[in-house]
Amino acid sequence: MASPILSIGYQRKETGNSGESMVCDYLLAKQYKILDRNKFMRTGEIDILAEKGGVTVIVEVKTVTADKFGQAIGYVNRKKQDKLRQLARELIQILGDDRNIRIDVAGVDFQSGEIDYIENAVTGK
User: Fold this and answer.
1) Taking a C-beta distance cutoff of 8 angstroms, is the pair 34, 106 a contact?
2) Residue 111 belongs to what H/E stretch?
């Protein structure tokens, strides 16, 4: 029998993957090109890496299953914002200084399928 803790971790991962798939569909409908998902880098993981209009977009996805849905940015604390900035700096080193990079946040209500998408949610260096 699987450990309850492992089972909860698996459920979270599956919920997160489903939320990311929903956001990819959302982005494709908005004419974004999906470059990568769950991209592992030296400083962490990028949920979705997309591109539109010459802008490379790092998308942080937060999926909730309960009645706690709200502003997506509310699920990305200061520490996570700092990590996303680190990922953006690392991506610039890989892609080149001339690359325009933006960090967006998507909140997904798994029950309703509603997506709260905030462009340029994390700013600064």
Assistant:
1) no
2) none
The encoded tokens of residue 102 equal 């933006």
Backbone φ and ψ of 26, nearest 5°: -60, -45
Residue whose token pair is 């470059």: 35
pTM of the model: 0.84
- What is the three-class DSSP state of 69? coil
Whether residue 61 contacts residue 37, with contact meaning beta carbons closer than 8 Å, is answered with no
- Residue 77 CA to its chain's centroid (Å): 13
Return the CA Rg of the chain: 15
pLDDT tens digits, 57-96:
999 998 877 656 555 567 788 999 999 999 999 999 998 8
Tell the burial category of 50 from Cβ atoms under 10 Å away from its Cβ (0-12, 13-18, 19+). Answer: buried
Q: Cβ distance 104 to 60 under 8 Å? A: yes
Per-residue pLDDT of 7-25, as tens digits, reads 444 444 554 567 899 999 9
Tokens of residue 57, six digits: 């977009």
